[in-house]
Design goal:
By secondary structure, the chain is an alpha/beta fold. 42% of the residues lie in helices and 17% in strands. Bound molecules: nicotinamide-adenine-dinucleotide and UDP-4-deoxy-4-formamido-beta-L-arabinopyranose.
């Protein structure tokens, strides 16, 4: 199949592109580089032996996007492009609604116009709001606590309505839990701009000495050790979930959780990271972060049964691969910097 991957140079998109190519599909990546670097394109070309198309295009630009879809003979769309920072969505909600809703509407309009039967959307466990885990796809969604989460719930609704009105449009909504880790080559991974908000990139930057110590948000949750519990999933397992979803797309709308089904606490992650990488992570406890809840983990029975997908990598793999990427990427950036000053 030929798959158009929106946001394919981003963290999850780039890993998914590699798995799609490995599975024998051809791809066109569309990205405007607002939260990714052009070097990721070079790195994808180093890792993969298969060729692919890249278009630098803003998905908000409907006319430009249409020329790409028009000439592409597209069999399916995987839509990753969007803005994803929870905190930023609180301070700049209009930008989050503008980008996340309009990118989804533009791609969906083109899927309908060009009769593209497969559409996979990056949703998030955040649509479950503060509901009690394990979270099941069929449960009623609760309001989320931030505009980012609202955009995900709204995009789900838009795609549901579009598929109902256009029965040829098959849609899969994938609700990710907490993606971490990196490709085993160490060439691509999560590389946020500025100080990371998420746990794993913060840990790797503390390990590298870029940040002084990790601040753990709360140690008084009703969990085994008092710290927050999340369902961390290796980004390569997540990537494989997309390939299973697009290959097995049915008509109508399917919804799947992509997680491991198992919760791991913040302290357990730190201890595992220290053990497998043989280093120490200095940390301190501070007050709870606004909007956080004690436990978030998935029920993954449905995705296992219907897509035959399950995770293959454990927390140790996630910690090892995240650290390998941090090390290699820091070295790559230092070399690039010294090249510039030659
Ligand atoms: P990312 O920011 O690394 O990747 C998104 C990519 O989309 C970037 O390369 C960015 O340049 C591109 N992009 C953004 N707006 C665009 C536009 N208007 N036109 C073209 N390209 C555009 O994010 P990610 O972590 O890879 O997440 C991918 C998707 O998964 C997002 O929709 C995100 O909301 C969702 N998601 C992420 C997580 C997570 O923890 N990373 C969890 C649940 C859901
Ligand atoms: C994990 C745990 C923190 C940083 C977010 C989004 C969610 C989804 C995934 C997109 C929590 C603790 C963290 C730190 C800490 N993204 N923590 N110190 O909040 O579960 O989910 O990313 O859809 O929508 O909300 O992920 O990595 O920020 O936090 O103690 O410096 O680590 O309190 O318990 P979260 P996270």
């Amino acid at each position: 199949m030929h798959i158009l991957v929106s946001g394919g140079l981003g963290y999850i998109g780039s890993h998914t592109c590699l798995v799609l190519l490995e599975a024998g599909h051809t791809i066109s990546i569309v990205d405007n580089l607002i939260n990714s670097k052009i070097e990721t394109l070079e790195k994808l070309r180093i890792i993969s032996t298969s060729d692919f198309q890249f278009y630098q295009c803003d998905i908000l630009d409907y006319e430009h996007l249409e020329t790409i879809v028009h000439e592409g003979n597209v069999d399916g769309i995987i839509h990753f492009a969007g803005l994803k920072s929870v905190g930023e969505s609180v301070s700049n909600p209009l930008e989050y609604y503008r980008v996340n809703l309009n990118t989804t509407i533009n791609l969906t309009r083109l899927a309908v116009k060009y009769k593209i039967p497969r559409f996979v959307f990056s949703s998030s466990a955040t649509v479950y709001g503060s509901a009690k885990s394990p979270l099941v796809e069929s449960q009623k969604l609760l309001p989320t606590t931030n505009p980012y989460g609202e955009t995900k719930a709204m995009c789900e609704k838009i795609l549901n309505d579009a598929s109902q009105a256009n029965p040829n449009l098959g849609v899969t909504l994938l609700r990710y839990f907490n993606p971490i880790g990196a490709h085993e080559s160490g060439l691509i991974g999560e590389n946020p701009n500025g100080t990371p908000n998420n746990l794993m990139p913060y840990i790797t930057q503390v390990a590298k000495g870029k940040l002084e110590k990790l601040k753990i948000f709360g140690n008084d949750y009703p969990t085994n050790d008092g710290t927050g519990v999340r369902d961390f999933i290796h980004v390569m397992d997540l990537a494989k979930g997309h390939v299973a979803a697009i290959e097995k797309q049915k008509s109508g709308v399917q919804v799947y959780n992509l997680g491991t089904g198992k919760g791991t606490s913040v302290l357990e992650i730190i201890k595992t990271f220290e053990r497998v990488n043989n280093l120490e992570i200095p940390y301190e406890f501070i007050e709870r972060r606004n909007g956080d809840i004690a436990e978030v983990y998935a029920n993954v029975l449905k995705v296992g049964k219907e897509l035959g997908w399950k995770t293959e990598r454990n927390i140790e793999d996630m910690c090892r691969d995240a650290w390998r990427f941090e090390n290699q990427n820091s070295q790559y950036e230092e070399e690039k910097f010294s090249e510039l000053w030659k």
